Structure formats: structure tokens, C-alpha cells
Amino acid sequence: MAEEQAASEAPKQSAKGGGGSGMIPALLVIVLMPVISFAMFKFMIIPMIKAELPEHGEEAQITAEDLEITYDESGTEYSVVFEPVVANVKGTSQTRFIQAIFTVYGTHPDFESLVEGKKDRLRDHADSILGNLTLADLERREMKNIVRNQLREGFNHKIGKPIVEDISFSQFVVQ
């Protein structure tokens, strides 16, 4: 009788003790994933990044001569006036519009000819910038400066050289 009782208790004990085997894969994942991530980063990603970087002794500074930019030594500032640029305010079902008249300034000796040569593209870029503004954007205090910076960066990109130094608005109206 004692043997039967001992035999019936053995399966009960093994059923209670076997529940931890399902946790082993989860624990392995929790422990091994950070180790694998660290090893991949240290032995694969960092060496690839270091291979792309220049040596410590090399200097890679870009100068005005590299970009073929010349400036007028006399300090003369050249300007080009853009006639009114009109665009619909985004999200108003074309019931409201924005109108801007601005002047572009720079000190490059060929500034006027470079800007006049690409004036159609520059006007198109200005239309795109102004046409993407919403009423909520226009209510922001600093929006005029944001538009000015976007226009300057876009104009320099369209011209191919960073020659546009400043843009001033003589009119910036939302109707």
C-alpha cells in the first residue's frame, strides 16, 4: 500500500515541477538579445563607420574658392525686385490668398544676371512656398522669417551657388 501511495505522488510532483521549461526560451531571448545587439554594434557597425571617416590629420573644409564663389571687394550690394507673387492659402477652398512683393540681395558681382537668368524658377519656388502656407501657419508670429529663410535656401539651391544673402518683404498680405 505504501508503494502505491508513493507511486501516485510521483506523477503529482513531476506535474508541478515541469512548468518552468516554457520560460527557458523567453529567458534566453531576454538574456541573449542584448548580448547579440552589443556584439553586432561593436564588431560590425562601428568598424563600418570608422572605415568611412577621414583620418584625423585630414581637414576637409570647404572654402569659397571650392564653390567658385566670388564677392565684390567694394562691398556693393546688388538687388533684384520680384513683382507680386500671389498664391492661394492652403485649406481655404481658394477663397483667401497671400500676396508678397520682395527684394533679393547679394554681393556677388554677377548677382543680377544669375538671378534674372533663373527668375522664372525662383518665382515658381516662391509660389510653392507661399502656396503651402495655411491660415494656422500665417497666424504664427515668426512666419515671415520662416518664409524668408525658406526662400533664401531655395533660391540658393535653384541658382546653384549660395549668393542670396538677404530677402526683404515690401509687402506680405493675406486677404
**CATH class identity of the largest domain:** Alpha Beta
* Annotated CATH homologous superfamily of the largest domain: Band 7 domain
Domain tally: 2
Name the overall outline: elongated
Largest sheet: 3 strands, antiparallel
List the defining traits of the structure above.
Tetrahydropterin Synthase, Chain A, 175 residues, alpha+beta, single chain, 3-stranded antiparallel beta sheet
Short description:
This protein has 175 residues and is of the alpha+beta class. The chain has helices spanning 2-17, 23-52, 111-117, 119-131, 135-139, 143-159; strands spanning 78-88, 97-106, 166-174.
Folded structure, characterized:
The chain has about 180 residues and is an alpha+beta fold. The chain folds into 2 domains: about 20-60; about 80-175, Band 7 domain (Tetrahydropterin Synthase, Chain A, 2-Layer Sandwich), CATH 3.30.479.30. It contains 6 helices and 3 strands, in the order ααββααααβ. The protein has a 3-stranded antiparallel beta sheet with strand order 1-2-3, with helices on one face.
